[in-house]
Write a structure and sequence with these properties.
Elements (H helix, E strand, L loop, with lengths): L1 H35 L2 H28 L4 E8 L2 H10 L6 H7 L4 E7 L2 H12 L4 E8 L12 E11 L2 E13 H14 L7 H31 L1
Parallel strand pairs: 2-5
Antiparallel strand pairs: 1-2, 3-4, 4-5
Bound molecules: ligand 0O2.
Length: about 230
């Protein structure tokens, strides 16, 4: 009798596990679909277009004020499925679309490279004044760089997009940085996947030193520009 109950319980457990696994696979497939071809990607691309246009207008305003371009380059992307999975796993979260939308800020991302550090804050302040954009969170990794040495200003914002009769607020991350910060971040990003082993700590320290050099370079360039502005 007892062994009968055990077998039945085992079966129930196995069926439940199979059910859970099926559910997981289904959610994973849905996540992939939503991040590749879906209403989310269409709307995400609209949010990107809106923010890129806003940055163009802001650049024009600053160009009229300062006689030079504050934004040198802009890039945008929707985060790829593999990268979303990695991030969810790193955070210990299920591979689920709704969770990804709630917990990952940079599913939709725009990056703007600014000429000088003060341009970054001017652009950010003009973004904050837009009526169809609301700032959810600001992460200032310039005033407080990450332990790795990473520097950038991140604005996690929502952009209002009007679709026929309804307005939707779409979450998007704007990263603002100088060309020097971008240079460091892109090389660090490349190296991040390769470093490991006993040299890892030394390499981390060397990268932190490079980040400090880059920060001092940005400050020096800003000082020079301010001197020239006064002439
Ligand atoms: P990828 O592959 O570049 O897209 P949070 O939940 O807010 O605490 P999150 O979203 O990791 O966690 O926030 P954080 O730390 O602000 O990082 C957001 C993005 O900034 C990262 O996205 C990177 O693009 C960039 N970043 C942050 N730290 C570093 C760093 O040390 N080096 C480099 N090169 N980039 C960094 P992803 O998805 O982590 O990476």
């Amino acid at each position: 009798m007892n062994s009968y109950i055990t077998v039945r319980d085992d079966r129930r457990f196995i069926y439940r596990r199979i059910g859970d696994e099926k559910q997981k696979v289904k959610k994973q497939e849905q996540l992939k679909k939503m991040l590749t071809h879906s209403e989310f990607t269409l709307k995400g691309n609209c949010a990107i277009s809106l923010l890129l246009t806003k940055l163009d207008i802001i650049n024009t305003i600053l160009m009229m004020e300062n006689g030079r371009s504050a934004i040198q380059q802009k890039t945008a992307r929707l985060k790829e499925y593999e990268s979303v999975c990695k991030k969810l796993e790193k955070k210990g979260l299920d591979l689920d679309f709704d969770i990804a939308v709630e917990k990952i800020n940079d599913l939709i991302g725009v990056r703007a490279i600014c000429a000088y550090v003060d341009d970054i804050y001017k652009v950010a302040s003009l973004i904050e004044r837009q009526k169809d954009i609301r700032i959810i969170k600001t992460k200032d990794y310039i005033r407080e760089p990450k332990k790795s040495g990473y520097q950038s200003l991140h604005l996690i914002l929502e952009a209002a997009i009007s679709f026929q009769s309804e307005t939707q607020w779409i979450k998007i991350e704007l990263q603002l940085r100088t060309a020097a910060m971008d240079y460091w971040a892109s090389l660090d990003h490349q190296l991040r996947y390769k470093r490991g082993g006993k040299e890892a700590q030394l390499i981390d320290e060397e990268l932190q030193q490079c980040a400090a050099v880059i920060s001092s370079l940005d400050q020096k360039m800003l000082k020079i520009r301010k001197k020239i502005d006064k002439i």
